[in-house]
DNA sequence: TTGTAGGCGTTATCAA
DNA sequence: TTGATAACGCCTACAA
């Protein structure tokens, strides 16, 4: 049933010439008789010959495949970024092999090994929320395999990275809240092992400080990016004697949970409590009230990541780790806009 | 910088034995001296040896990689299904290589070729909305390469497929509308080259007929699964002299557009117009009003697809195309629930 | 312009 | 129990 694909051997035999000639003809190298070339091309087309990429990879020690590790691709941020990665990479002739860590450290470590065994030409990664030890990534770099991280970037490693200005984004968001009249501003922060969480947290703190507003420990809660964890954090905040009048949430998903909790309790958004998220997931403009959020150029993040990656791949000799920081934009919507 | 990975040759040389012995020892074959085996294993671990999957693929004519082609992975349905596919496949030792057709026929054709060149062990696909000619897929089957389709399944091909009962799902949804008291029920249908669109359409028609309700051509509109196209279709329906009092939409995304349009016009949902979608995307329970919809087991669809695929892959001799039809479930929410 | 030989990393076959 | 040798499909010298 399953017939062996056509090889250059088949063509060579049929034409009574050597495989090297066929190889040369097919690759359009000079030094091959025009007539020979034509007959080879004709037969190749007729037999529907396609070069075996596996064999090619073996001789070239290059698979034209790049491994991508992300926490999860049901999150729009990641699927969109991957779209950008894929568009740039496929145009350059590369395929991608995607692994999900499912936010799990052990899975992530296993993913790295799997991809390395497949001899991918390099890795593009966004770490899991659990990951603290980066040894599995630095081992990759030590092997001389190109690696670039995006979004949840790898701090302290000798590798390129693409991120947004989390600090500025957070700062502006909170500053805007203050300007709009909110005073008791809480923060639902992300896992603190992630740089992005720390930066957004710091932006929040500095914005408050710059306006002489005190920061209260009780106003800081943590979540893990899930809707449910955001809802839980909001629930706790509502128990406070002096309830906040605004919440800056580390990401949109938990912000959805915040909105759900507030609505369930009949608390008006934004009159009683304002909410700001981060990322601008598509649903943020559909939810009720529409969510004010710090928008990230997700697709462009992917493209830029891929570009940095290609740059390193194609000129590994003068490689110097680069850091790209893309701009965010505050999208003001109804969750903060008092009417 | 980039050092060559360790090979069995390196191990053989260092130990002064032949590569075949090393190979055997590493694979745990019998007929190898216990002491030899131990020294090989020790050295392999010490050198951090990992077999080159590319070389293995070449000799085995098997890459342990399966190609997946989907329209788009920012749609939750697909990213979730892929999660299921990946979980089942990776447990069986397979990697996946994902391509997006971006709903474009030419891209889809190119994807097939790319994947075939990479010598994937098989294909799992969901066709683009544009695709009418299935020749590129039947060519795959003719080559003896396992192929299974899901969701947007390939009608008429000798291949396994996994779908939900679109007809029943639609029928029940519309029947429910009628039972609830709606009478002028419109349908925003999907591209008619897709079987799923036709089945949902037919379910709609039959449900109306079974209740002696007339079906009016003016009540049938088309969309392409985008939010915008749903909005546009609703806009047209509102122009009718006898506006519908309910709309059954082929999918959730265009249903979001329908809701947006109705809200923009100040038309009450569900009192003036009820809306039902299909799929149950996560947003559907967050949007306001929450969307009544025909829920699909997206993750399970992926798992089942992968299982069917593995079955064929592991026993290609007794392969018979199979068709799995999973159940849907009507999720009643506020977009149809008169209060 | 074309062919031969060797190699990429591994397995399989056969002989020792 | 181990070692040559050929093979997977292709490319790269080098030789003719």
What is the compact description of this entry?
Chain A has 339 residues and is α/β, with parallel strands linked by helices. Chain A has helices spanning 8-15, 19-27, 34-47, 53-60, 76-91, 105-117, 135-142, 166-180, 195-210, 227-238, 252-264, 298-314, and strands at 65-70, 95-100, 122-125, 147-150, 160-164, 185-189, 220-222, 246-249, 274-279, 292-295, 323-326, 329-331. In chain A, helix 1 (8-15) crosses helix 3 (34-47) and helix 5 (76-91) runs parallel beside helix 12.
Fold topology:
The structure is a homodimer of 339-residue chains.
Chain A: H1 8-15, H2 19-27, H3 34-47, H4 53-60, E1 65-70, H5 76-91, E2 95-100, H6 105-117, E3 122-125, H7 135-142, E4 147-150, E5 160-164, H8 166-180, E6 185-189, H9 195-210, E7 220-222, H10 227-238, E8 246-249, H11 252-264, E9 274-279, E10 292-295, H12 298-314, E11 323-326, E12 329-331
Parallel strand pairs in A: 1-2, 1-3, 3-4, 4-5, 5-11, 6-7, 6-8, 8-9, 9-10
Antiparallel strand pairs in A: 10-12
Chain A binds a DNA duplex (16 and 16 nucleotides) through residues 7-9, 17-21, 23-24, 27, 31-33, 36, 51-52, 54-61.
